[in-house]
Amino acid sequence: xxxxxxxxxxxxxxxxxxxxxxxxxxxxxxxxxxxxxxxxxxxxxxxxxxxxxxxxxxxxxxxxxxxxxxxxxxxxxxxxxxxxxxxxxxxxxxxxxxxxxxxxxxxxxxxxxxxxxxxxxxxxxxxxxxxxxxxxxxxxxxxxxxxxxxxxxxxxxxxxxxxxxxxxxxxxxxxxxxxxxxxxxxxxxxxxxxxxxxxxxxxxxxxxxxxxxxxxxxxxxxxxxxxxxxx
Length: 231
Prior knowledge:
This protein has 231 residues and is mainly alpha-helical. The protein has one domain (47-230). 59% of the residues lie in helices and 4% in strands. The protein has ten helices and two strands. The chain has helices at residues 3-19, 35-61, 64-67, 76-91, 96-107, 112-131, 137-144, 187-192, 199-210, 216-230; strands at 161-165, 182-186. It has a two-stranded antiparallel ribbon. The radius of gyration is 24 Å and the shape is globular. 29% of the residues are buried.
């Protein structure tokens, strides 16, 4: 076979590859740009898309409507995943606070107190995971899949970083999957906790009520538990 014939065959193969892309590669919706233009735009906008990705994913993880449909403790893995994506954003020189502001807005939070409580909780969890040395390659791999990473710093070194309900689920089940009520904590510490309600829990319950994250009945349950705990 001559070099010319070989070149023709190779070229033909390339043309076939271009003519028969993977399923779903082209957007055939009427009015959409053609494939070449879409490829060019994708290449130009790749950095912008990469920057937006963590916020878009986090917005899905914290969407209130979706959280309301989850079963018992099913938001816990979502907290781990959120911290992974916040860490990813930070590693890409994105401000975690701005990333969360975008994510929370996309998720549909419109109540300013609820926005603040949700943002502060997730930033606090990022800080906890950072200080406990959980954001190494192995820890991030676990958190990306909603699993507990291993703690590498502090007195709980070697333990798992679990998700705790600040206001105990046993006291107020309606806060089970509220992101603002979930906090990362060493597993041994979490397991040693009881359903005691102190000043922090009572204060937070009042903030949740003002933010529309807790019903009047739920607040009353926390207040009753706080009275019992103080005796």
